Amino acid sequence: MAGAEAANGRNKYAVLDPSDEPELDAAGPEVRRRPSAASERRSKERFVFACAIFASLNAILLGYDVGVMSGAIIYIQKDLHITEFQEEILVGCLSVVSLLGSLSGGRTSDAIGRKWTMALGAIVFQIGAAIMTFAPSFTVLMIGRLLAGVGIGFGAMISAVYIAEISPAAARGTLTSLPEICINLGILLGYVSNYAFSGLSEHINWRIMLGVGILPSVFIGFALFVIPESPRWLMMEKRVPEARAVLLQISESEAEVEERLAEIEEAASLLKSTKSEDKAVWMELLNPSPAVRRMLYAGCGIQMFQQITGIDATVYYSPTIFRDAGIKSDQELLAATVAVGFTKTVFILVAIFLIDKVGRKPLLYVSTIGMTICLFILGIALTLQKHAMGLISPRIGIDLAVFAVCGNVAFFSIGMGPICWVLSSEIFPLRLRAQASALGQVGGRVSSGLVSMSFLSMARIISVAGMFFVFAVISTVSVAFVYLCVPETKGKTLEQIEIMFEGGKEWRGGEVELEDTQHLIQSNKKSGSLG
Predict the structure, then answer these.
(1) pTM
(2) Which residues form a coiled coil (predicted)?
(3) Which pLDDT tens digit goes with each residue over 311-327?
(4) Residue 521's pLDDT band (cuts 50, 70, 90)
(5) Is 488 exposed, middle or buried, given 0-12, 13-18 or 19+ CB atoms closer than 10 A?
């Protein structure tokens, strides 16, 4: 009987698991089965990667808007004659209003699915971008900017969640950091657009710069015909056959499909009842258990530190920074920003290769410490240019400022940039993932908006150099935050990470190893069956 069962087990997975196949005669035609299985596995890996790329297109919209506005604002000032206060509002309001998209995006994605929420975000952004392109006044420009912000909030929040839910644990860090790569690519494209169209008339050039941002959202429409719905969302809706069909598309074997289905099913509380089932999601977030509180500290905290260390101010106001360093012409200012965008994009590619090999926490240490040093150097360089002109030549001061800005964005791209997306999408349990990720986005977007909308006003009071000394001090605090609040999640499934946060003693004692987490899962299953 045992032998028959074993044979049946082999037959069940024989097609998808080549390791269970019997040895074949080399002369026989069926010898090609093994290469075919390997080819099928590579095909599935490419499919998952393609899904992650398409989902990340929303992040290009955010990046492009950040990059293009830094240069477009120079010509908007001249064409529409806006004040410095209006400039701060125009630049910073997108970060704040995008939180409306993030908040409603969490609830919307739970109602209509991850895939169609991304589509809705792209449509709203297109409408806003079109209004900005043809805006005859500051008021109309603001209306378009607000709509674009809502669309960006929708897409940026849910794309990372979607990618985390379709990715295998071994590649989740790499794939979930793709949105940050796309943000950096979008910033670079925005900078290049600024430089390319800066030679046109002041009435036309900024409109073209903003209008080009519509193109990525068009590709998102085509992506909807390629990517499947999130299997975890389908399971949450109890559409088990559809979830299984999606997992068959993205998993290496049927055995892996069954294993992932069981994990998701347990996490979604379809097999056992838990106290959290009786709570509304927002009530659980507002009155969290110790485990959920630790998740919120890590997920929301890293979103806030990502912004209050001044990265958006550095990117949005890089022309202002370089002008303060001594660069005079608009063309030279925009050329310097292209160097910043190129550096940011190159170093995010370094992070993508290291995040699943080195781990999240070591990269965060390198990132936060490096950013702190560069922010201090930038503050010193700008101070010397203003108050110690005789000590260094103007050219050296400019070069030092450009080097410090490029170094800051490079260290940001190695750690704080991509890992913020990864952690905020992987540490929350399925029942809370969309809403909790949205809550983290709210903290990040509000922080970004406050920094962006106060940078020029505060710089007038304490100087641009003084602002970067403040950012350097905050960055120093972020090093301690990483040490105290951020766990290592490399190589763990989403369900194992949830169990890790529930282990109070293990959490306080340090990191929970993969084997310990698996033991906790098995213990949890046994206690559930006994209950």
Answers:
(1) 0.69
(2) 247-274
(3) 888 888 888 888 888 88
(4) very low
(5) middle
